[in-house]
Structures
1.
Amino acid sequence: MNNAPIGIFDSGMGGLSVWQEIAEALPDESLIFFGDGARCPYGDRSHDEILQFTIESVARLLDEGCKMIVIACNTATAVAIEYLRQCYPDTPFVGLEPAVKPAALTTKSGTIAVLATARALEGELFLHTSAQFADSVNILKAVGEGFVEIVERGEEYSAEAETAVRSVIEPLIEKGADKIVLGCTHYPFLRPTMERVIGDRDVEVIDSGRAVCRRVAQLLDEYDLRAEQGSEPLYEFMTLGDDDYFDRMIYRAYGCIGEEEAEDDEQTDN
């Protein structure tokens, strides 16, 4: 048993979609969420910048005593996770990659779409997984232009958001995609808008949040790191953003877990 926190890192607020899954599924676990914020988005940055930013952020979480690190950023996972595993061989790391496999196995049209940042679509994890299914399905790739920025501003229900989503989603559906895989943790916050654009068409949106949560649970058991049953979890938050960004991050996080839980947890740190 180990009551130390799980560290969750993202370039900004998108990783709160993963944080939500973990908080709900593992209610005994304390969590520290680090959303960079100041340097978000990562998707268009250079490989070396993303690697350095991720190394710095993970080091801060480890300094806080985290027993496991979740890289809740597809872009950072694509660039940095293997390097981090080499640097910290005794620390379990969980990364994200687009859920190509479940989409490929369940498509009826034979065409799936992967919606991600440009850097994530270039990552070895995605390329390797895609190659496994390249002979059986047609995989369309698309970048969610402006999606991260819209979510960071908290404008995912705006007219701008619907226009941006429609401009990306409609061409994918027209090309026959019946599964749209979300390859960025910011994108699930746009899911209601995506589903409104899709309407009654037989198209399913898939993200990796639950799969990541299952992997976290597996590694907690494998390394004997689960918190004691009935522990009171602490939720802490860190960011390189300004006070306004921190406040908006807390507001979004507590909106994820609900007001009742938010009232029970006031442990924050920036």
2.
Amino acid sequence: MKLLQRIRSFLTSRLFVTSLLILIQLMALIIPFILLGQYSVYIHAAISLLSLIISIALSSSAKHAPFHLIWIIILLGAPIAGWPLYLILRHNQNESRATKRCDRIAAKLNALPIGGHNPADLNSCQKHPFRREMYLLHNAGYSPVFTQTATEYFPNGESFYPVFLEKLKTAEKFIFMEYFILNDGFFWQEIRKILLEKAEQGVEIRILHDDLATISSINGAFTRELRKKGIRIYPFNPYRAAVDSFMNYRDHRKITVIDGKIGFTGGINLSDEYINAVERFGYWKDCALMLEGDAVSALTRAFLKLWSFAVEEQDDIAKYLISPSVTANGIVQPYCDSPTDDVRIGRDTYHTLISSANRYIWITAPYLILEPAMTDQLCMAAASGVDVRIVTPSIPDKPYVHAVTRSNYETLIRAGVRVYEYTPGFIHAKTIVADDAAALVATTNFDIRSFYSLFENGVLLYSTPTIHKLKDDFLTIFSESKEMTLESSKPKNLACKLARDVCRIFAPFM
């Protein structure tokens, strides 16, 4: 009986119905070309020639290069169905109205002064060993550096969530929350109690969540209850029955802003597994970062960019950019990344951190789907004497992605990169620490999808005491992990090797 109820519930869900409608649209577009190809060898030849031309054009284009191999295989292997699919689903930045509107909003908010400094104006920045990251994020990512922000690092969800709840209780003016995943459970119910209480006190509360990631956990009743209490909750990029390339762009950010004075970010979503209130894939290792001070304004601006896009309203944004100052050591630089523009800030930040490290660079990565240039850079760093270490999960959440992750081990290990698997379970944190001088806490995965298709954010720390806390956390992680060798990274059999090779081809879509 329960099984039948689950089947009925799935078949009537918005996810299933919408996906079915999209599939019908795709079939309606593809079938005519298949029929045409059957009736005329000349039409088939013409379409095949068109597929070849598109494939050649793709091979010479640098934009979204990681996706080109997949499209070339599809176009040449199935030309009749391949080229209409490509025209519909490719990363079509220039023609998408949603993309243009998103970029217009971002440009408008990027022009607003949010405090902070140009790193070229600070002597401490010009002499810093990781100044390239500062300049990159400032010049290409519209992200100033801040010198009056205190930071606190939480090495797991259990240490994070009590502080997170207590800080929510201090809100007097507004609370902004933006998350990829929001699931009803113990963690959300604790948050909900505080939000309802604060809404009654007149605190302005806004919640933005990715629609596709929460499609099975947030329904109409969920949002109606919050809205009746005065809490404004909206989905980002609603999943709809439309064949649209913009649908591939999802909001993967994790941001909370409280009164413009306190901010949280990191890998932790609002779901019980992130604080280990429930067990999924063994122990869930994640992290978070709290900011107090002037750098919080950068998180506020990042939130308001996507809020303005999702809700389509004009705000008096300046009243939320408070920029309070807190006495602190070091430099903090929050940034955000958008797949709609021509700059890959998340990817390029990883590149510059790797190339700037002189002694060591340690990385946690739940998914390791590398572009050739990233693999080369990691290998060159290790070969030049830099202590490069990467920690991935031992218990994966997506076996097919983990197959691609493991397929990279042999190349990295041969070059001198030390690769570990976190044996207690699944490590979801996206962190880097380098040379005791710089550290990164981000939402961006080491994968092609994060670099090209997801809205992401992160915070770079320079010469702050918090960097040593991240380093200590890494040392604990290494002690709990198994170091991989050439022998242990080889596929167990031919079927495993073939599975890895096939998964690598389609890695950009994972």
3.
Amino acid sequence: MFCPKCGMKLQDGARFCSRCGNVIAGNGVPPMPAMYLGANGPIPKKKKGKGCLTAFLVFLFLLLAAAAGGGALYYYNKKNDEVLLESIRAEYREDGEDEEAEPEGEEPEGEEADEGKADEGEAEDGEAGTKEDEAERPAASETLATEAATMPEAWPAAVTTAGATTAANAAATAPDSSEPVVLYASQVDFSNYRKAAVLKNTVSESSHVTQNSNIDYTGWSAFDGQITTSWQEGAAGDGAGEYVQAAFDREYQVQMVTVRLGNHRSDSWYQKNNTPKSLIIELGSQRFSVDFPQEKEEFAVLLPQPAEASDIRVTVGEVYPGTEYDDATIAEIGVYEA
């Protein structure tokens, strides 16, 4: 007897094939149902729970992949937001720097436009202009009172004791109403005055320093509104008798003339150049001689009565000698009507 499946010889009466396990029909043993038989024997039973575990592992893998993808997307978006924010900040900073770098006005003429070049036609200074030290300046009343003991008789008594005296009543306190009164410009309320406009092409001078630089030492520098530029006469001697003159855009009833005497570019250069001690001021038909203390200040000369004038001429009288150069210097001249 042989196994119908594998052909192995079986013992008589055998119910199973010892090789393939095939159930041998017959001999009183009913054949196995077809659903339990396969091509190679009985169909093995599936283990319970194995399919669920596989499904769970697949689900867990998908969940972790989704979480990783979400995290990567969040990180990518965050980095993009940071880059965009940084670019906006950088653009804002650049715009702010450009606005600060814009000049507030036209480039000044003369010495202020070329502070590193030579001055007074003698040598290069290499010094930067310094601001006036207001803290070290004595009070106006104290300074004027000190000057009273040393100034000549031409210096009005009302000026030396003015202190808080205003421009409006200074002339009334002067012993001689025919003489001009000199105050510090800080004592004058300029809102009560209108400044005369000077025509640049009418400005002339008796002489001025010339040198190989673009610094302007001509008479216009005394009217250009820049205190660091100045008219510097270039004649031989200490500058006595040298003058600067200019015409206005119309006729004015001049009540006040302001002056900054000497080189106001810095304290050092103020000491080096000659500074006018007295000036002769001519306005129309009127002519005044005025004395000043040696101070790096702006002075206001109040006229005893308005002078009808369409031009001005300022002549240097005596000077305070400088420590190095003998060029008499006037930094600024202003003309006002009430």
4.
Amino acid sequence: MDQEAAGIGAAEPGHAGPEGIVVLHADAFLAVVDKPAGLTVHDSRLARGEKDFLVNRLRAQLGKPVYPAHRLDRATSGCLLLAFDRATAAALGEQLMSRTVDKEYLAVCRGWPEPAFTVDHPLDGGPGKPLKKPAITRFERLASAELALPSAGFPTSRYALLRARPETGRFRQIRRHLKHASHHLIGDTSHGDGRHNRHFRMMGIHRMLLHASALAFDHPQDGRRLRVEAPVDAEFQRALALFPQAVDGA
């Protein structure tokens, strides 16, 4: 479907529009965009007085209402799924609840975890939501690195590049599960390890190293399976350069 027929204005998939948001996929009913790190999706109690939100930029860029089907933390980049009408948003929400949406993330953590491991650890819903619910994340180690950065009495520091596949969608799930596994996410100022965060800041990497790299779901209109991928930004790419054995495209 061409852009005019889809009614999404001047935006082109794979290119940033006038509000700076890259549209990865778009049709008449939904879109997947590449959320930049450091941009909050929408206003909430956690926004802390912020005035710049992804949904506002997208409404201006696409010229229509947008309804995020899920959320990404402010510091996380990558694939974000949104609908252009409430019915499509509800249909996508049902897929998310039934766990038929496949979400993949890239993450850099401290230490060398097992080649494959699962964290099955209940999590609460964040501030004001103390009830804990089941939460499962599956991790795969893609590459490892040992850098000449002293830490905790050792002359070097070890890091790993992970692929994370959350089966549930709890508040800050990947970040909190990595902390639970003692493989803290690099750049995470809330649940991470400040010593290792400083190591990466000294290398010019200031962002949290969590990126929603791929999203797969069934289109609510015709049931076709869509998979959309988002490339990492330049700062995350600098982190990937620390892992020379990483697979191409990771």
